[in-house]
Design a protein that fits this description.
- The protein is mostly helical and 197 residues long.
- The protein has one domain: Tetracycline Repressor, domain 2.
- Helices cover 76% and strands 0% of the residues.
- It is built from 10 helices and no strands.
- The radius of gyration is 19 Å and the shape is elongated.
- The termini are far apart.
Length: 197
């Protein structure tokens, strides 16, 4: 019975977070109130606070779910790419596709507008790092298969991540087709230095 109750509590947390996702996406983090969260979930404040200590904790949980969804979507796509190089281009496309995720604006507002504790900062960093293992795994396999030059896979992972996250600011000034073209151009430039010839 205790296992079922824990499962129910975990599902309720997910339901609350997913119901609230659109609200945060539409209003932003700052403009979304606990009253809004209660209304959209048809729950009392006490019920929401039973599952989440604060709006901040709820939003962090939502970011975690969002990142897990991003990874799951990538893992579903990854099999269609044969080589590490194809996978790196595929990841670039996957990253561009996610730029239109309506929650991203609220996440940017949250990250840039919060005074956070060290614990919260550590949690945010762990969420940001979720894709790192995937990048590093693909790069390591590329080196092992002779597609990529020998090098430190972790260093290369950071460079790939920097390329992806750095170019994401183009979302505010260019259309998606142009952004995708520039991501591919960036990946081609990066690969020119690390691809085995």
């Amino acid at each position: 019975m205790e296992v079922k109750r824990r499962k129910d509590v975990a599902q309720i947390k997910k339901d609350i977070a997913r119901n609230t996702k659109e609200l945060f996406a539409q209003k932003g983090y700052g403009a979304t109130s606990m009253e809004d969260i209660c209304t959209i979930n048809n729950r009392s404040k006490g019920s929401i606070y039973y599952h989440f200590k604060s709006k901040e904790e709820l939003f962090m949980y939502l970011i975690k779910l969002n990142n897990e969804d991003w990874m799951d979507a990538w893992l579903d796509k990854e099999a269609q790419y044969e080589t590490a190089i194809d996978k790196l281009y595929g990841l670039a496309d996957h990253y561009v596709d996610d730029l239109e995720n309506p929650l991203n604006h609220a996440i940017n507002e949250f990250v840039s507008g919060q005074v956070v504790s060290q614990t919260m900062l550590d949690e945010m960093l762990s969420l940001i790092r979720i894709p790192y293992a995937t990048y590093e795994r693909i790069i390591s396999k590329g080196i092992e298969d002779g597609e990529l030059k020998s090098g430190n896979p972790q260093d290369l992972m950071h460079i790939v991540n920097g390329l992806f996250s750095g170019l994401s600011t183009l979302y505010y000034e260019k259309d998606v087709a142009d952004i995708r073209r520039i991501y591919h151009m960036g990946m081609t430039s990066l690969l020119a230095g690390i691809q085995q010839r």
